[in-house]
Write a structure and sequence with these properties.
heterodimer; A: mainly alpha; 2 domains; 34% helix; elongated; B: alpha+beta; 4-stranded antiparallel sheet; 7 helices; globular
Amino acid sequence: MKPKAPRDRQDDSLSAVAVSPEAVARRSDGRSGPAPASTVRRRVGVGVGLCLAIAVLFALLAPGQEYLTAPGRMNVGHEQLACTSCHQPAPGSVRQQIQAGTRFLIGLREAPVDFGLREVENSDCYACHERPFDRHPVFFFNEPRFADARKAIAPQQCSSCHREHSGRRVTVQPGYCQHCHGGLEMKNDPLDVPHATLVRESLWLSCLGCHDFHGNHVMKSPTRFADAISSLRVGRYFQGDASPYPRELKMPARQERGDH
Amino acid sequence: MATVYLFVTAPPPLADASAGDGKRLSAHEVLEICAAENAAVRELYTNEIVGAGQKVGLRFDEQWEQLKFDAGPLPALFLRQTSKSLARSSVRLGLFLGSDNPVNKSNQFSGPQAAALQEMRRDAEPRSFFMNDVRLYTAMFPDFAVAPACVECHNKHPDSPKSDWKLGDLMGATTWTFPSNSVSVSETLEVLAALRNAFRDAYTRYIEKTKTFSSPPEVGKKWPSQCYCLPTPETFMQAAERRSSKPTLDRLLSRRQEVLRESTRPSGPQ
């Protein structure tokens, strides 16, 4: 018996199920006739999935939901910041950035460009935390004589000690003073335990008990070593606990960026 | 399609500050101009503000930033204030001051800076090197005792490790850093503008502080050599620019003449 041609089989199915011409035209597999139930289910599934994905995407990108996409908890004191407080757009439109990037890749431009968002820099921290009297401004550490300290803890970048999205206040370990103050000498030492002794005994965890690193707290260093804040409390402060230093600040952080 | 998108229908290209019009300076040349500008401003501040000011009752001290302390910045701290202002600008120019005999131990040179200062003591010539870890071109320039106020203060200071400084002595060095060794003229001008802005900012901070003095000096067009008064930041900067603009322009023009000579030199074996 001569087998039926495929066209004939389609004709048979058409005769078996009543469908509208539009339904026939909707089939995407190039064949006419109604889609099988499994295909319909698959399409409904894909449609629902797409809608859900779009809804999730919108929910993630909605204002106030930044914490859902952040790589970790904001550091202590930064909980209320928006992403754009630190992550600033790179100069130019997307198209200009693509063009400039392409020109750089083929040697028609000297400097590379950022795409989308530019890298977060010290200046982004200064936008809120600029303090003219900072006793350890990060840029000082770009001087040649701090090469060893740079190798050890990279103090020339704010983010080396305040790595964001870590849920803490300070992310470096206390005791870092040793990298620069190993040769400390004082002509008129005001402390009952001489600083030279503290250095000789490598009591580097004690430094922050009398001196806050950036000098932003209104405080007078004690003259008795026993009156210093314990290193344990300082360590907890680094982790995010309340400050053991006096509450009054010389210059509180700005609540919004104050770019120059 | 990509070519049309990227080049034919392109919007205005992003500014490339590092690109130039063919005339380029090395980092050392740019830093040399900056150091000369700084030397002129420091001399003006040391002589006309600190030196003359002390004679009419103005006080200058390392604790000048303390609240309720009626004092202004010593010359070294004026430089440090300039350095801080520079750090806030978008130009990545770094400025530091140090010595092998500093009043403040935190300004003690070590490593390559100490070695460079020793070499400078022999010939008083600037030194340049590259800091590989931070990718910064670095130049050091000698810092001489240019005014009696430098010598008097350093000799009398209780923390000074040396008390026999003389006028004209090499007291230390300024260290300058810049991230590129090929600088366009427009970039150079940006650097100079940022530096002058930093001088103005440092002086303005001092003037702001004088407003908190129990007996504030008059601020106007007069200088301390005339009265218990101080020039405004505008007047101060005008005087500074009068001292430094011509040498700076001469340096830029001499560089241009060098480039022109190089471009018109016949090619081929010499």
